Automatic annotation (TrEMBL):
Name recorded for this polypeptide: Dihydrofolate synthase/folylpolyglutamate synthase
Function: Functions in two distinct reactions of the de novo folate biosynthetic pathway. Catalyzes the addition of a glutamate residue to dihydropteroate (7,8-dihydropteroate or H2Pte) to form dihydrofolate (7,8-dihydrofolate monoglutamate or H2Pte-Glu). Also catalyzes successive additions of L-glutamate to tetrahydrofolate or 10-formyltetrahydrofolate or 5,10-methylenetetrahydrofolate, leading to folylpolyglutamate derivatives.
Molecular-function GO term, any one: tetrahydrofolylpolyglutamate synthase activity
Enzyme class: ligase
Record keyword Glycoprotein present: no
Domain (Mur ligase central) ranges: 46-266
Amino acid sequence: MDQSEAILARFLALHPKEIDLSLGRVARLLGDIGHPERALPPTIQIAGTNGKGSTTAFLRAMLEAAGKSVHVYTSPHLVRFHERIRLGAPGGGAYVDEGRLTEIFREVEAANADQPITLFEITTAAALLLFAREPADVLLLEVGLGGRYDATNVVPSAIASVITPVSLDHQKFLGDSIEAIAHEKAGILRSLTPAVIARQDDAALAAIEREAARVGAPLAIAGQDWQAREERGRLVFEDGDGLLDLPLPRLVGRHQIENAGAAIATLRGLQALGVGAEAIEAGLGSVNWPARMQRLSGGRLPALLPEGSELWLDGGHNPDGGRAVASTLAELDERSPKPIVMVVGMLNTKDSDGFLEAFAGLAGRVYCVPIGSSTAARTPDEVLAAAERAGLAAEGCASIEEALARAARAAGPTPPRVLIIGSLYLAGEALAANGTPPQ
């Protein structure tokens, strides 16, 4: 076990709740460690329900293509905690190493002195301390949950805010309506700080616009001030400054055009950063974001399937995410028809019925598996019941490997297209089992 894992276990014991949205505890700790949140590189803050990780990945790729050093804070991780903290460097950054992570964890642990604080809050404080000490041109700060009371929202200023599509998720913490959730996401908006708003449900957009008017944040709204679309196999971006004719992004799926568009709109609004069309194009081609329609072409897991099969991985877990992935699967099937098989594991905090309904009539069979890395996982039988309610043929399995073996035995003359999906926890387990953790 890494030393950092032992410290994370101690952090987890500091508060009775894993999630307790508040800024008081993290603000107190940041004060005790010298207020690193006041000494950060120019910061772009990203909130939203779906697409914020992909949008962050596009921003990093484009900024790095322009020669910028970029710190990145994201969550959750897939295989190791280190993935949450990326330290920028000329020519490209890297995940924080074990020695440095352990050192910073020990420093914030000593300063906290066993006072109540959630795991996300104390690790966010540690990340901000690292980011303040290491020079970089830009910090990309992805919100963990919500926005208004998320620990990342202690930063006093930003050069831009981004809100990706808002949908129903985490209702227990954010509210049971699109309007309420959008209001919480809009808590990152700041006076005079430009904000890029991806395409939204009408009710979500109205809530965001109300908050923007209240705080005085200028908005650049998808479909009004900018748009990104596919035309003849190209990505066309258009805003008040003109039109860009670009290659399609490396990340698979029509929804990634919208995510790329939000990143482009953000950088076009920050002209002082000097990210031109050439860097934007290079970033679209180099972007990497694991477990977002990621094709697993090597490793242990694809070898369990018949020759000619495809194995895909996605961390989608809510109804809107399901619909986006289902649309992508349909596009793949139109270009190259194959029987579609799903391997699904989900958490009990997610709308399994709504998620799986997106795949009705598309997937031929669903293999339902457990998620060993989360105490909130649904059992395979619970996922199976949800799949059957959605009209999908399903059966339970003890593991991803067993599911793939069954898919191989059931395969007909045409090798299947297999998708592992339902949770980022499951995606992390798949990457670990495959021997291909994020780099």
